Amino acid sequence: MSDERRIFSVSELNSLCRSALENVIPGGLWLGGEIRNLKSPASGHLYFAITDGTCTIDGVMWRSVASKLSFAPENGMSIEAFGTPTLYDKTGRYQFSVRKLVPVGEGARAIAFRQLKEKLEAEGLFDSEYKKPLPAFPFRIGVVTSGSGAAIRDIINVLARRAPYVTVVLRPAKVQGDGAARDIVEGIRELDDYGELDLLIIGRGGGSEEDLWCFNDEGLARAIFDSGLPIISAVGHEIDFSISDMVADVRAPTPSAAAEIAVRDIGELLDEILGMHRLAGRALSLRTSRILERLKMLLSRPAWEAPLRRIREHEQRLDDLLSASRGAQKIAMGKSISRLNTAMGRLSGLGVGTTLRRGFAIILKGEQILSSARELRTEDKIDIRFSDGKRSAKVVE
C-alpha cells in the first residue's frame, strides 16, 4: 500500500458535503413544519428555524425570493417550504434553502390581508376622525377605473339619471394584474392635483380574489389616506371588502352604489324643495293668523278704551285751543293797528310842513340848518324857508 494520503481542507470537505446534500433529491423537496426564531435583517434575507415539534432545521430565504412573498412570515406560522438541503460552507452548518413558502391553513392572501389590515389599523388609517365628509352637491366628480369596464358605464348612467348637471372626469387605470395598484395611485394623485374636482370614486366591478387583489395594496391605501379630496371606494360586489374600502372616506358596495351615494337625486330634491315651500307657507299663514287674533284680543280689552278716549279728548282740547288762539290773535292785531294809527297821527302833527304853516321858518346857510344867531356873521348870505317858499337874504347887522 502506498503511504500517500490526500489531505482535505475544511473548505473542500464542506463543499463536498454541500454538493452531496443538494443532490440527495435533485430539484428539491417540500418540507412541512412550523416557523421559529424568525429574523429579518436589513439585508432583506430571512433566517428562521423549521420544526416538526421533535427536530429542527435552520432555514434561509434569500432576498430575491423573500421580496416576492405576498405575506410576511411569522413565528408560530405553520408552513410548507419547498427548497434544497444544503450546507453553509463557512461554518459547516446544515440548513434548508427555501425557494417557495406557503402557509398552511390560512391562505397567503388571507394572511397578507390580515397583516396589512392590522398594520394600517394600528397607525390610525381607518379611524373615523380622519374621514372627510362628502360634499352635499358635487358638480365635478373624478373617477379612477378601467376606461372600458362596466364600472365607468354604470357610474355615468347613474349620474346622468340622478344628477345630469354633474361633470365626470375619468382617469383610465389598470384595475387588475401587475402594476395595477401603482397605476391607480398615480391616477389618484393626478386628479388630486387637477384642482377642479369635488370628490373621487375609485374601484371596479366584480371579479375573483386575484382580480381584486390590487385594491389591498399598502401604497394604494396610503395614497387614499393622503388625498386632499374625499374618496368613495367601490370594489367588486357587495360581499367583497378591500383595504381600499377601509381607508376610503366612504365605502360603496358597487360602482353604481358609489354614484348614488355621491349625488342627491334631482327629482327627490325638487319634491323636497316644494314640500318645504308648502310647509313654510302654511307655517307663515298660521303664525300670521295667530298674531292677528292676538292683536284683536288685546284691542278688545277695556284697558285699551281709556287711552283712546284720552287721545280723542286731547284732540278736541287742541281744536279749542287753536280756535281760541286764532281769536286772541285777531283781537291783538286790531289793537296794534289802532295804536299804530294813533302814533302815525301824532307823528304827522310833528312834521316840518305843519310847523312852518304855524308861522315858523327855517334859516339855511348853504346846506346847513342854523339853530343859533351866533352862527351868523355880517355879510353872510342866508336862505329863509317858509311854508310856501324860500327867500334869500343878507345879514347887515
How would you characterize the overall build of this protein?
- The protein has four domains: about 10-105, Beta Barrel (OB fold (Dihydrolipoamide Acetyltransferase, E2P)); about 125-265, Hypothetical protein af1403, domain 2 (Rossmann fold, 3-Layer(aba) Sandwich), CATH 3.40.50; about 270-300; about 355-395, no CATH class.
- It has about 400 residues and is of the alpha/beta class.
- Helix 4 packs parallel to helix 9 and helix 5 packs parallel to helix 7.
- The chain is elongated and about 205 Å long.
- The longest helix has about 45 residues, at about 305-350.
- It has helices spanning about 10-20, 65, 110-125, 150-160, 180-195, 210, 220-225, 245, 255-260, 265-300, 305-350, 350-355; strands at about 30-40, 45-50, 55-60, 80-90, 95-105, 140-145, 165-170, 200-205, 230-235, 250, 360-365, 370, 380-385, 390-395.
- The N and C termini lie far apart (about 210 Å).
- It contains twelve helices and 14 strands.
Characteristics:
five-stranded parallel sheet, 397 residues, 12 helices, 43% helix, single chain, OB fold (Dihydrolipoamide Acetyltransferase, E2P), elongated, alpha/beta, five-stranded mixed beta barrel, 4 domains, Rossmann fold
Strand content: 15-25%
Number of domains: 4
Indicate the mean pLDDT. Answer: 85
Question: Any idea what the CATH architecture of the largest domain is?
Answer: 3-Layer(aba) Sandwich
CATH topology of the largest domain: Rossmann fold
Shape category: elongated
The major pleated sheet works out as: 5 strands, mixed, barrel
List SSEs in N-to-C order. HEEEHEEHEHEHEHHEHEHHHHEEEE
SSE-based structural type: alpha/beta
